[in-house]
C-alpha cells in the first residue's frame, strides 16, 4: 500500500534534481553551437582539382550532383607531339534538398575536389535555392577547416614528394637555363676581347718581306 503523498514527494524530488542540474538548452541562433571539426554541413568544390571524371555523380545514391562539360583540344606541348583533349567543366551543382549527407561523393573523388564544410546555415524558403551551383560551391571552400596535423610518426603524403619532385625539376631547368645564358655571355665577352678583324676594319701596317726574304 503506497504511503499517501509519496507520489508528490517523488515528483518534487525530480523537480529539485532537475533545477540543480546544468542547463543544456542551446541559445541558438544567439549563441553558435560548438560543432565537432568533422561536421557535415555543406559540400565545397575545389574546381581546379576537378577533372570532370563524373565519379561523384555516378556514385551519389540520390543522383543530386549535376555535371555538364565539353571537350577541348590542347595543342601538343612539344613540336611534333600529339594533340590532347581535356574535359572542361561547364556546370557543377549539388541539390541539397535531395542530398542525404552520406559523404560518398567526397570519399570517391580521386582528385580531392570535394570537401566537407561545417557550415549549416543555408536554409531557404524556396526549395530551388537549395541547388547550389559551382560558384556557391566554390565559396563554401573558404569555410572548409584546415586538415589536422599529421601524427609525428606518419608517413609523408605522396603529394609532398610529387610537389618536391616538380619543384626540383623546375629549379634544375632554371639553373640549366641560367648556366647557358652565362656561357653565352662569356663567349660573347671573349670574342669582343680578342678583337677579331671585322670587314672594313684596317688590319694595320703589313711588312713586305721583299725578294731577299725580308732583309733590308
Ligand atoms: S553527400 Fe551523398 S547524397 Fe549528398 S551529394 Fe554526396 S553522394 Fe550525393
Ligand atoms: S569525382 Fe571529383 S574530379 Fe570527378 S567529377 Fe566529381 S568532383 Fe570532379
From TrEMBL:
The keyword Ribonucleoprotein does not apply. This is NADH-quinone oxidoreductase subunit I. It catalyses: a quinone + NADH + 5 H(+)(in) = a quinol + NAD(+) + 4 H(+)(out). Transmembrane segments: none annotated. [4Fe-4S] cluster 1 binds at residues 50, 53, 56, 109. NDH-1 is composed of 14 different subunits. Subunits NuoA, H, J, K, L, M, N constitute the membrane sector of the complex. Residues 41-70, 90-119 form the 4Fe-4S ferredoxin-type domain. PANTHER family: NADH DEHYDROGENASE UBIQUINONE IRON-SULFUR PROTEIN 8, MITOCHONDRIAL (PTHR10849), NADH-QUINONE OXIDOREDUCTASE SUBUNIT I 2 (PTHR10849:SF24). Residues 155-168 have a biased composition (Basic and acidic residues). [4Fe-4S] cluster 2 binds at residues 60, 99, 102, 105. NDH-1 shuttles electrons from NADH, via FMN and iron-sulfur (Fe-S) centers, to quinones in the respiratory chain. The immediate electron acceptor for the enzyme in this species is believed to be ubiquinone. Couples the redox reaction to proton translocation (for every two electrons transferred, four hydrogen ions are translocated across the cytoplasmic membrane), and thus conserves the redox energy in a proton gradient. Belongs to the complex I 23 kDa subunit family. InterPro entries: 4Fe4S_Fe-S-bd, 4Fe4S_Fe_S_CS, NADH_quinone_OxRdtase_chainI. Residues 148-216 are annotated as: Disordered. It holds the Pfam family Fer4. It comes from Streptomyces hundungensis. One of its GO terms (cellular component) is plasma membrane. It is a peripheral membrane protein. It is found in: Cell membrane. Its EC number is 7.1.1.-. Binds 2 [4Fe-4S] clusters per subunit. One of its GO terms (molecular function) is 4 iron, 4 sulfur cluster binding. Its cofactor is [4Fe-4S] cluster. Its main location: membrane. Residues 171-195 have a biased composition (Low complexity). Keywords: 4Fe-4S, Cell membrane, Iron, Iron-sulfur, Membrane, Metal-binding, NAD, Oxidoreductase, Quinone, Repeat, Translocase, Ubiquinone.
